[in-house]
Amino acid sequence: MLSRILIAAAALTTLAACGGGTEPAVPGKVDVVAGFYPLQFVAQRVGGDHVQVTNLAQPGAEPHDLELKPSQITQVAGADLVIYLKGFQPELDKAVEQNAAAKSFDVTTVTPLEKGEAHEHETEPSPAPDAKQDEELDPHVWLDPTRLATIAEAVASQLGKADATYAADYTANAQALKAELTKLDGEFTAGLKTCERREIVTSHAAFGYLAKRYDLEQIGITGLDPEAEPTPQRLAEVAEEAKEHDAKTIFFETLVSPKVAEALAKEVGAKTAVLDPLEGLAAGSTDDYFSVMRANLKTLREALGCA
To answer: 90-116 burial string, b = 16+ CB within 10 Å, else e?
Structure first.
């Protein structure tokens, strides 16, 4: 305990010097570090008043691009529990491996990732046979509420190991969150059951799990990398598919430039709308996971002509 207090004090000193990125540990609470917003949300809901949760990703910034400050690495080392998604934030993967391997939880151990659309072959020269393949693992598991519920139950178990005194509270909180997520899942299932169209044209292929869960077809302008630039060939292919399926809306995201989506929408005679992949919230936002997901559902229903 003394060593953790000293580490937290050091982190606070660095924060005062550099500004932003860390929070001091709160005595009597489990110190949890989360890689990005959905994991922060789960940790806070499951941990309740017994935890202090820090999100390493800055508000309004792409969490993929996380660059850890020395103070954040110190906080990772001093945390009671680090919750992360292996492969999504390489710098955090490295920090965990070097400083917190014994007190970390990789959510992919309970929600294995599936292959998603990559499209690297459309933005780069063809790779060698043993190089990067056209399909990569899609990290966006939280967009399926049932998968997030699985993560919540596992987080309760991890918190119970870190703080056995309140293990029953963590389990109860996780079950309450699971009930809310099950309700949300039902809303999506009912709301998207009868639609004129089932194809969603998105700025990047972040919605594979959501599409699979609710029987939609995702057409990504780019693949899993939100910053990838599509080639003219890829844009032509997506435009053709959008026209074929009579797409009325081209979706873009809150943390990514809408220019490509806007240009495609103009070409095919569609409008644009935000479909939020929930990788992070904007600075000062009062939304949470549920409000953003319900906004996504409303947007999808309007775009797909759902009864």
So the answer is: eebbebbeebbeebbbbbbebbebeeb
Domain boundary among the residues 147, 169, 186 is at 186
| Strand arrangement of the beta sheet that strand 104-106 belongs to | 51-55, 30-34, 81-84, 104-106
Is 176 found in the same domain as 271? no
Residues 236 and 251: their CA atoms lie apart, in Å, by 17
Q: Which domain holds residue 211?
A: 192-304
pTM of the model: 0.87
- pLDDT tens, residue order, the chain (307 aa): 434 433 443 333 333 333 335 566 777 899 999 999 999 999 999 999 999 999 999 998 889 989 999 999 999 999 999 999 999 999 999 999 999 999 999 999 999 999 987 554 344 444 433 333 345 899 999 999 999 999 999 999 999 999 999 999 999 999 999 999 999 999 999 999 999 999 999 998 999 999 999 999 999 998 888 778 899 999 999 999 999 999 999 999 887 788 999 999 999 999 999 999 999 998 899 999 999 999 999 999 999 999 9
